[in-house]
Amino acid sequence: MNLNEYNISVDQHADGMFRFILKNIRDEDKARDIVQDSFEKLWRNVDNVNFMKVKSYLYTTAYHTMIDLIRREKRKEDFENVDVMDYSHSEHYSDLSEILDEALKRLSDVQRSVILLRDYEGYSYTEIAKITDLTESQVKVYIYRARKHLKNYIGSIESII
Fold first, then answer.
1. What percent of the chain has pLDDT over 70?
2. pLDDT digits (tens, 9 = 90+) for 25-68
3. What is the DSSP code (8-state) at residue 46?
4. 100, 102, 108, 130 - which has most CB atoms within 10 Å?
5. CATH topology of domain 96-160
6. CATH second-level architecture of 3-82?
């Protein structure tokens, strides 16, 4: 296809393509853009398109360009209609150290001491027993009860994060 045939194609098919696209999408500006994009694609492939088949090429290109535009707008529309609250955790407070501090305050003094010594400081049961003047079995019982209380107060980790 040469330059003269390209210009003839524009004259012969631009209005028909515009009406075809406009009927489908009902937006004049978008229809003009699609027609222009189609002629731009024809210009890029001018050497590969036969002048006798240019009408078919243009309408097919315009149709596919229109479908791509509709799909892009659909995705954009879907994204804009997303409720951010469905995907956010604003209902949950996620400062873990503050939540743990509050939970620890609710323990008795002995439970808090043994939990802090065991889980925060890493002392063994024997060492905690010596520090707190408790028996080793008492330490284990206090730690068990404190952890149970913390678990009931905090709940699952998923509810915090």
1. 85
2. 889 999 999 999 999 999 999 989 899 999 989 998 999 998 89
3. T
4. 100
5. Arc Repressor Mutant, subunit A (1.10.10)
6. Orthogonal Bundle (1.10)
